[in-house]
Every structure is written in structure tokens, then in C-alpha cells.
Amino acid sequence: MTLTLTNIGKTFADGTRAVCPTDLSVAEGEILSLLGPSGCGKTTLLRMIAGLECPDSGGQIRFDDSDVTDLPVERRQVGMVFQSYALFPNMSLRANVGYGLRMQKLPRPEIDARVEEVLALCRLEPYAARAVSALSGGQRQRVALARAIAPRPRVLLLDEPLSALDASLREALRDELAELLRRFNITAIFVTHDQTEALAIADRVAVMQAGRIEQIGAPEVLYRQPASRFVAEFVGDAMALEGSRDGEMLCMAAGRLPLPAAAPGLLPYVRAEDIQICADGPLTARVDSVTFLGTHYRIGLGDLGQQPLYCSHQAAVAPQPGAMVRLSIPKQGIMMLPQSQASAR
Amino acid sequence: MRLTRYLPLGVALLAAAFLIVPAILSILAGITANYFRGLSSGLTLRWIFEVWELYAGSIFLSLWIALCCLVVTLLIGVPAAYWLARNPGRMARWLEEFVSLPLSIPGLALALALIQLYGSHLGFRTSWLFILTGHVLYTLPFMVRSVQAVWAGMDLTTLEESAASLGAGPWQRFRDIALPGALPGILAGALTVVTLSIGEFNLTWMLHTPYLKTLPVGLADAYASMRLEIASAYTLIFFVIIVPLLMAMQWASDRARRLTR
Ligand SMILES: Nc1ncnc2c1ncn2[C@@H]1O[C@H](COP(=O)(O)OP(=O)(O)OP(=O)(O)O)[C@@H](O)[C@H]1O
Ligand SMILES: [Mg+2]
After folding, report:
1. Any bridge partners for residue A31, and if so which?
2. Beta partners for residue B43, in sequence order
3. What is the mean pLDDT of chain A?
4. How do residues B36-61 score in pLDDT, each as one tens digit?
5. Is A163 exposed, middle or buried (CB count within 10 Å of its CB: 0-12, 13-18, 19+)?
6. Predicted ipTM?
7. Which residues fall within 8 angstroms of residue B43, CB to CB, at 6 or more apart?
């Protein structure tokens, strides 16, 4: 199913502008992630698509060719996975998964067959007869997913489905969820404030800030060609390079650095993995901190400006704190970005 | 060491005895052939039968009123609590206070207000419905609070939204999600309402007419106008009815509280 939002905004009764009027379309079978900091309106946008929140007048939501803007949630055929899972405590796992099918008044044998099918797909058969209170966090998350998917919704909406899990489990389930969503082959919208989750699961990511979509694109595009400083900082933790400009050169406290373009009005940003420690680099900096992170060292560099820069150093040994090191930043590692969000699409 | 260990126990036992001994004496009096001659006069069930003959009407009236009171408080209280749980906010708090108002007014004053308001409608004033009205006013807050507490503790809104997204309409959500979730609170509230209604004296005493005596009003009447053995036997019957109810109520509200935690 293709989902099309036209001019969808939300102003709450108390005057809070949670979502500015937005256009968005999601293709059949596509997994879109809404990514952004807390309070930027991700949940509100998702709830409007679900029909749990009514958009401001003038907006329109279409599922394929039908206008569903005024359809109540129970008639929209959306699958919803809530942050808290919201499993029905008075029903068994099986009854939870079959609830949507019961609401469709399907014949008993068909309900049973489809419940079994979904349970198998989500690897839940061993627990099928259990009460939901007797399940682990990861199992509950899968039940919530199975329950949402069983009635074959037209679009699946997930609001931070992994955030209630602890960190180690989250990573394992992230890959599992990505794989399940692909297997369902369903149009899905996935809300998260965790950039790795968004990049790992989604076909396209929409980065939101203060009620508007800053940039929307494939994970690689967002990461490599961020449209604004906000996107670069939020996706992949880009850092600003401070210094005065001299044509295509940046004059930093640490030395002179060649920029990819003169680009007046744009500022240079860099990511930690693009700063290299090498003997003949053009910059000199003092090592302030060294943190061993297993795959690499995270090295804090001082004397480069007001904000410290960090460098990921992938080597067997790291320099000592206090040592002076030489750095180089390849031109393709430098992103030239506008200072303010020039709402690029 | 020993003292500090046994002293609290002793005090507790003493306090319990202080409360229980009068009840036991009263019950014993109800099955003693002649209270003034003591237990040596022998035990008998005669007084109990006499109470039954004299006051069976009161007993049945009380049970009937309690049952009706339960039905009415369920029909009003559960939807009211549902509305309060679904629409939290200033208005809901205000309404909740309003529903709870009868709790803070002495039963006597409530009864006087009812009499002032309806006293002139003789048909109503002399019917059992008049007593029922008083009981409903008095017990309704207990039902509303008990049910609402369970709903407040279970994130009803998200559960219902989740059911709605699966295709459940308003009535199905209430039937499948809200109602089953509230059952422990409804049970606790129901037992409270029945127990309170059967035991209510202050208000009922003001509202009753000579032909409409409830169980506790009959008890007062028995102490005032019958021989002590009959009144005591009455107390015994009262205990037999009310104590199991009290115990069930305690159990149910404990359970409801545990489930909502
Ligand atoms: N019912 C409401 N009434 C008024 N304001 C609201 C309401 N719900 C949300 N808001 C406001 O709308 C804004 C967006 O909220 P929303 O829940 O969509 O954010 P979010 O991006 O999902 O954040 P989070 O990551 O913390 O879940 C916030 O400023 C929030 O305070
Ligand atoms: Mg949210």
C-alpha cells in the first residue's frame, strides 16, 4: 500500500505545534523510519497516520487512492506496536495475537490457522499457551508485533518498539526486527530516536526536528550527504571544524587544512572516523583523553577550538594523553553544510 | 530481650480481647436459656427461632435492599468510573469530589436532607425505595472509587487504543479490555456496597418507618423492646451474615490492590 500525507500538521488544544504541515509519501512495501530527538513530533505524526490523533484541518491522509483522513482508527486497518507493547493482560498470548482476527469476525478455524502461521513466523510457538505476564521483554515485543501483523494491516506503525528493552537485547532484536519486517513485506513506519536503529532497519529515514522533516533519504545518503548541520550532528555525530577561511583553506589553531570547496556561507564538519592520526598530517593537536572501546580507541583532541574534537583510532596502540600528534583529514571526509537548517528535502 | 519480644504480642492480645470479649458474651447470651442464671441454665436455640419469627421480614428486607443497592451502584458506578478513567482532568476530579461528598456528610444529615426533600411524597417516603435511595447515595462513592482505582493503575488508554487499532469499536473495547481489567475492583466494590448496605444504621434509622425495619434497625429495636436473650440471638444472626461478607470484602480489596500495583 502507498501512504500519502498531504499538508498534515497538528496543533494541540493547548496551542502546542507538535507537527508543522508536512507532506510525506511511503511506497508499497517500504520501511520508513522517523528519527529525531525527544519531543520533535514523531509520535504525534505516527498517531495521526493511525487515526489516534486528528490532524489540523486542511490535511489529508491517503492509503492508496482512498482518503482515510476522517476514518476512525478501528476502521483504518493499521497495525500498531506501542512502546509499552500494551498487550492485553487478561488474555493468553494466543488470544492476544488472534484478537484482531476475531474483530474481523473470521470463522474460528481460519483464525486458528492464521494465528499459528504468525506465531511460527515470529518464533513464538513454544510460548503460545502462556499468559502474557509470563513472558520476557523480548518475547513481549514479538507478541506485540505478531498481534499487529496477524490481521494483515495495510500499514504497520511502530513507536519505539525497542526502547523498553535493555541495551544488549536491543541490538540483537534490532536485527531480528529488521529481518521480520522484510519478511512480512509490508509498508511500515518506524519511530525511533536511536540513529543506529533507524539506519539499520529502514529503507529511508526521515530526520525530524521541532515538528518538521529536515531531510528524508536512504541511510547512506543521510549519513554521507546530510543536508544540514542538524542532520549531520544527529546522524553520525558530526563535529564542526573551527577556524577562519582563506579561499579553499581553513586556518585552524592546529594548522591549515585544505577544504573540498571554497563554498562561502557553508561551514566544514567532520566525523570522528575521518580524522586520522598520521606522522605527516597538516594539523597538530594535543591528546586530552584516550578511551579504549574494543574495536577502536576514542581519542579526545584539545587545542582545536571551543569544542573538543574526537577521533576514532583503529590501531593496536594509542598515543598517551598529553602527547602531541599530527592529524590529517581527507577532503572527502569534510562536509560543507549550511549553518542553519535550510529545510532541504 | 524476652520482654521486648513478648510485650507487643501481649498488648495486641489484650486489645483483641477487649474487642472480642463483648462480642463473645453477647453471642453466648443469645444461646443461653436464661442469661441472668448464666450458662448453667443450659444452651438453647429457642431465642434464635424467636428472632426468626419476629424479624425475618427485617432480615429479608435488608438482603433485598442490599441486592438492589448493588445493582443500582453497578449500573451507575461502573459507567461513571469508566468516564472518569477515560477523561482525566480538572472536570473529572471535580466530579469525583462531588460523588464522594456523601462520605463526608454524617448519615444523619444526609437522611434529614432526603426527608426534607421527599418527605411530603408519602408514597415514596413510606416505600422501601426511600431507604434504597439513601443507601445508594451512601455506597456509590465506594463503588466508583474501587473500580476507578483499578483502571487508573492499568494504562487503560493505551490498551484501548491498541484494541482499536486491531479493529475493536467502543463497545468491544469496553467489553473485552476495560471490563475484564476492572473485575477485581468491581468485585471489591460490590462486596463493600453489600456489606455497608446491610450494616448501615445511622441513615436507615432516620429513614425507616415502623413497617420497614432493616437488619440493624431491627437489632436496635430488639435491644430496646425485647428480652436480652432475644436481642443477643439477633446479634448472633447479624454476625453470621456480616462477618463472612466482611472477610470476603477484605480479601477482594487486597486482591484488587495487588493486581493494580
Ligand atoms: N496531548 C498533547 N497535548 C499537548 N501537547 C502534546 C500532547 N502530546 C504531545 N504533545 C507535545 O507535542 C510535542 C511532540 O510530542 P511527541 O510525543 O510527538 O514527541 P516525540 O517525538 O514522540 O518524542 P519522544 O521521543 O519523547 O517520544 C511535544 O512538545 C509534546 O509535549
Ligand atoms: Mg514518542
Report:
1. A188
2. B32
3. 90
4. 787 778 888 888 888 888 888 888 99
5. middle
6. 0.85
7. B31, B32, B33
Report yes or no: B43 and B32 within 8 Å, Cβ to Cβ.
Answer: yes
- Residue B100 burial (10 A CB sphere; 0-12, 13-18, 19+): middle
pTM, rounded to two decimals: 0.83
Centre of ligand 2 to C-alpha A203, Å, is 21
Q: Looking at the domain that runs over B57-214+242-260, which CATH code has it been given?
A: 1.10.3720.10
Neighbouring-strand partners of residue A5:
A24, A61
What is the rounded distance in angstroms from the CA atom of residue A69 to the CA atom of residue B177?
A: 26
Judged by CB atoms closer than 8 Å, whether chains meet at B155 and A151 is answered as: no
Residue where the block lists cell 528493552: A165
Q: Which of B155, B165, B176 is nearest residue A73 as measured by Cβ atoms?
A: B165
Distance CA A119, CA A125 (A): 5
Centre of ligand 1 to C-alpha B83, Å, is 24
* pLDDT at residue B68, as a whole number: 96
Q: What angle do CA B99, B104, B109 make, to 5 degrees?
A: 105
Domain range list for chain B: 57-214+242-260
Please tell me the total number of residues recorded for chain A in this structure: 345
Q: Report how far residue A180's alpha carbon sits from residue B140's, in angstroms, rounded to the nearest whole number.
A: 50
A/B interface, count of CB pairs below 8 Å: 58
